[in-house]
Amino acid sequence: MMKTLNASRHRPVLLAILFLLGILLLAGCGKKANPSPTAQPTWTPTAAIIAASTATTAPAATASPTSANIQYLPILRHPGRTEMASPLPSPTPEIKPSPTPTPTATPFPPGPPSKLGVFVGRNDPQLFDLLRTGNLALVKTLEYDPNFVAEIKRTDPDVFLVARYTPLPHPDFNNWDPIAEARKFADLILPIATEPRRLASIDCWEAYNEPVVSNEAQMASLAQFEAERVRLLAEAGVRSCVGNFGVGQPALELWPAFFPALEAAKQHGGYLALHEYSAPYLWFGAGTNQLNPEADERDEGWLTLRYRKVYRRYLQPANLIIPLVITEAGIDGLVGNRPGPGDARGWQDFGPFWQAQGAVKSSVFGFYMEQLAWYDAELQKDDYVIGAAIFALAGPTGWPSYEIGGPWLAIFEQYLSVHPPR
Q1: Which one of 4, 50, 223, 334 is most buried, by most CB atoms within 10 A?
Q2: What secondary structure letter does DSSP report for 83?
Q3: What is the pTM of this model?
């Protein structure tokens, strides 16, 4: 009885000794008792936004040239293995631009030689795509690098090329010496214009961009400057465009004061340069398209086709019909007293308005091209018009809504392709 009681008293000690011996044996075999589970790699989905190409099934009239369908694609990422490659290079969501779809328009039918051209702010290969049609009438350029202008003429020897020296500040017409300023201009531009490649390529040089004259004395003073400038440049074999007035400028009654400049241009093989814009449509202000529903300007206009008022009322009676180059043209919401959205500027801004009016049947630029085709048809009626430069292809900084380059240019190129070379 006593032995049994003693064994029972020591049994817990014996059990503890046996348990410790078991642990030691397991350790000697390289095992771990009750091992904790090791963390396993897990794949977690991450959303990335990828801009996919727009389908061509949507009507071109409602599709924006820069629209994109957004698709959410799962991307598998490993949370603890930085060396694991992922389907996209960045571990954070990113937006990838898709190729911009080319808008379509009803192909334009064949027509007579076009008088449309382009305004360019810099060298851009898109210009040469247009030049290779052989049907671009006019190029107005702010970039007059000699290699660039020579290449323009090599690509299309018949295109009319106008250049402007851009850093020229506007004068104070009330406090200047026009003859002295003309000589300063000649001293500045002649070393540039007489470089052999420029001299062989550029058909005329402008002076001030869109000068604003408010009375007859200012107009006469500007005419003195232009006449002297034309003469000085002509002595070196450089031809000039005079005027370069902005849209709706100058007041019609001021034109007789400008006759000395036109006479000098006529004598020295020069040209008259004007700008013609309108909005919300290119024909607003012409014919019956007036704010006053009872007004009718017939085949003339106050904005576009304003040049006909100048030639018919003033230049023709004075025997001063000289060639006209419209060195800027197109849609411009900055013209005053017009209908349409007040904050719109270039043609791109007017797209929603045109669509809301039901005017767009193909694409927004297709409708703009229809307006330009209307303008072109009017220019073709006047032999003295050399061409009109659409503002702008590769335009200067600050005018993005006027830009006609990119995918839209194919529509213009198709239009030119069905008009025979000049």
Answers
A1: 223
A2: T
A3: 0.76
